[in-house]
Design goal:
The complex is a heterodimer of chains A (about 260) and B (about 300). Chain A contains 8 helices and 13 strands. With about 260 residues, chain A is α/β, with parallel strands linked by helices. In chain A, the strands form 2 sheets. Chain A has a 9-stranded mixed β-sheet, sandwiched between helices. Chain A has a two-stranded antiparallel ribbon with strand order 2-3. Chain A is globular. Chain B is built from 9 helices and 15 strands. In chain B, the strands form 2 sheets. A 9-stranded mixed β-sheet of chain B has the order 7-6-5-8-4-1-2-3-9, with helices on both faces. In chain B, helix 4 crosses helix 5 and helix 6 packs parallel to helix 9. The chains are: A alpha/beta (about 260), B alpha/beta (about 300). Chains A and B meet through helix 3, helix 4, strand 7, strand 9 and strand 12 of A and helix 5, strand 5, strand 7, strand 10 and strand 14 of B. Bound molecules: flavin-adenine dinucleotide and adenosine monophosphate. The site of adenosine monophosphate has 22 residues of chain A, from helix 1, strand 4 and strand 6.
């Protein structure tokens, strides 16, 4: 099975994040950038499917030059090769434009299965898998917490607010995964060394037949007009339990009219 | 006045009424229902029209048919805006709609101004952004608990939509819908009170304590990732960056340290209360009221006290 995993590089969610004041796009240059956490689960799932059914795993990333660091890290987990779409004109791309670029690249890769994370931690938009399926005219099975592959037939348990849904489709398909689906492996020393030699194909917008003004800030379908920091919350009263902590808590809740 | 389309969540949730309330500031409200919905309720909150699309062609497949029907409606009615809920399904329909119409979209809005400018809370609740769709009409998904719904009676004239869905929209079949434990508790993202437990709760059995306090307060139960990963509570109740974002009137954190990824899902709550035995736990930095103490002593005492006051 020919599997493509979408891997996005994002600013570390454990640190402070901001927009760059010059153009209100996500500040990536000064951030500590990492693989979008959910995508590590997609990589793991791809490797598991390859191990069980054979095939090849390709990492696909759209991102600035610095994203190569995350691509090598992804490769060190075990995928065979990577494709890196990078172009200065892509800076500031909206989700709609990003889906156009990723779909064009996927069009050249002939994937039976496209795996990706359920959402990215920077935008949290959760739209990419369905946008890609829409553009490619293939099935989307999203929010999977379990995936079964039987020949060309895919069955996923899709997590919902009430429980889950069982959804099925035939390949080719896009499947997005939650962090409940598996436990990503740590790269081994051997894996890290091997990753350095794995092929990473560079693609520009011209290679994909997309004009610069269709993407990036020029082609964006939405724009941030204002950004401000929310004032940080301040600490309120803090009491130490000396046998009546529970009662005091309820007194507070009663003052605030919660009980 | 142009129409504003509001896509109704399955079974009319609180966020539906919030969307209807927001939509009234943007134009004449038309609700779009997939399947069945209480049209009287939609009218009560301002829907002048209700478009209904039902049948196995829309309900038996994953989101694509809904987006197709909605795209048809947008082309026909040329609405001023389309509002959907910021839930998994709402965002997915919005994503497909945006591609079909080559149109911008904004997710997770808490407010939409008359000119379509949306206010979004970003980066784990640390930033506020105002954004605009610059190509096409505003397609905006609304975060639950963003506004207080208010009634404004309207006609709710029902018309059914012609559903013609192509085979390419029927590629993913929904073969089963399983409800996993839906008690009488309010839904996590819509609840006005949320009581969450963390690793400090210790085990799955002890979560009864969290549930008990939630029930006494009429709230929903949430959990930190550490609690979910340790198997104390199911994943759909996880609050935080890789879980749900909640914004209740009251958030109670029991045995939760307050890691940045947990804050991401709860720090826009109106009032935050924490119980933690570690006085240095970061959760106290954002708690309006904190009790430094053992939750196994504090929580049962609080529960008793609430019962006494009832
Ligand atoms: C990419 C990424 C995404 C993440 N997403 C999420 C997310 O969505 N949600 C989330 O919650 N976390 C998330 N995390 C994990 C997060 O970093 C923390 O590890 C997690 O929130 C810790 O959970 P906790 O507070 O329950 O556990 P701990 O940090 O272990 O804290 C337990 C607390 O309980 C207290 N305690 C122990 N016993 C008692 C007692 N008897 N009485 C009172 N207090 C007691 C302790 O003092 C301690 O403060 C994410 C991490 C990463 C890297
Ligand atoms: N620029 C990108 N490059 C590669 N994959 C991406 C990119 N943007 C989004 N994705 C994938 O789409 C998933 C969902 O992202 P999003 O819709 O942005 O929340 C992510 O987890 C990634 O797997």
């Amino acid at each position: 099975m020919n599997i493509v995993v979408l891997v996005k590089q994002v600013p570390d969610s454990g640190a402070e994040r901001t927009l760059s004041p010059s153009d209100n796009t996500v500040e990536r240059a000064s951030a500590n950038n990492v693989i979008n956490e959910m995508d590590e689960y997609a990589i793991e799932e791809a490797l598991k499917i390859k191990e069980a059914h054979g095939g090849e795993v390709t990492v696909l990333t759209m991102g600035p030059a610095g994203a190569t660091e995350s691509i090598r890290k992804a490769l060190s987990m075990g995928p065979d090769k990577a494709v890196h779409i990078s172009d200065d004109a892509l800076h500031g791309s909206c989700a709609v434009a990003t889906s156009k670029v990723l779909a064009a690249a996927l069009g050249t890769l002939n994937a039976d299965l496209v795996l990706c994370g359920a959402e990215s931690t920077d935008g949290r938009v959760q739209v990419m898998p369905h946008m890609l399926a829409e553009r490619l005219g293939i099935a989307a099975l999203t929010g999977a917490r379990k995936l079964t592959v039987d020949g060309t037939q895919l069955t996923a348990e899709r997590q919902t607010d009430e429980g889950y849904e069982v959804v099925t489709a035939a390949t080719p398909a896009v499947v997005s995964v939650w962090d409940t689906i598996n436990e990503p492996r740590y790269p081994s020393f051997k894996g890290i060394m091997a990753a350095k030699k794995k092929p990473v194909q560079a693609l520009s917008l011209a290679d994909l037949g997309i004009a610069g003004d269709e993407v990036g800030t020029a082609g964006a379908t939405s724009a941030v007009v204002e950004f401000s920091k929310r004032p940080p919350r301040s600490a309120g009263a803090k009491v130490t339990d000396e046998g009546d902590g529970g009662t005091q808590l309820v007194t507070y809740l009663a003052t605030e009219k919660f009980v | 006045m142009a129409e504003v389309l509001v896509v109704v969540e399955n079974g009319i949730k609180k966020v539906t009424l919030e969307m209807l309330t927001i939509a009234r500031g943007l134009g004449e409200v038309s609700a779009v229902v997939f399947g069945e919905a209480d049209t009287a309720k939609l009218g009560e909150y301002g829907a002048a029209k209700v478009y209904v699309a039902s049948g196995d062609d829309v309900e038996g497949y994953l989101v694509a048919p809904k987006a197709a029907v909605l795209a048809g409606l947008v082309r026909e009615k040329q609405p001023a805006a389309v509002l959907l809920a910021s839930t998994q399904e709402g965002k997915e329909i919005a994503g497909r709609l945006a591609v079909k119409l080559d149109n911008g979209l904004l997710t997770d809005a808490v407010e939409v101004a008359a000119d379509g400018t949306a206010t979004q809370v970003v980066f784990a609740g640390s930033g506020i952004v105002k954004s605009k769709v610059t190509r096409g009409l505003p397609i905006v998904t609304i975060r639950p608990n963003s506004v207080t719904p208010s009634p404004a009676p309207a006609d709710a004239a029902v018309s059914s939509l012609d559903v013609t869905v192509s085979d390419s929209d029927k590629l993913t079949k929904v073969v089963e819908r399983v409800v996993e434990q839906k008690g009488s508790r309010p839904e996590l993202t819509e609840a006005s009170i949320v009581v969450s437990g963390g690793r400090g709760v210790g085990n799955a059995d002890n979560f009864k304590l969290v549930e008990e306090l939630a029930d006494l307060l009429g709230g929903a139960v949430g959990a930190s990732r550490a609690a979910v990963d340790s198997g104390y509570y199911p994943h759909q109740f996880q609050v935080g960056q890789t879980g749900k974002t909640v914004s209740p009137q009251l958030y109670v954190a029991l045995g939760i340290s307050g890691a940045i990824q947990h804050r991401a899902g709860m720090q826009t709550s109106k009032t935050i209360v924490a119980v933690n035995k570690d006085a240095e736990a970061p959760i106290f930095e954002l708690a309006d009221y904190g009790v430094v103490g053992d939750l196994f002593k504090v929580v049962p005492q609080a529960a008793d006290e609430i019962r006494k006051r009832k």
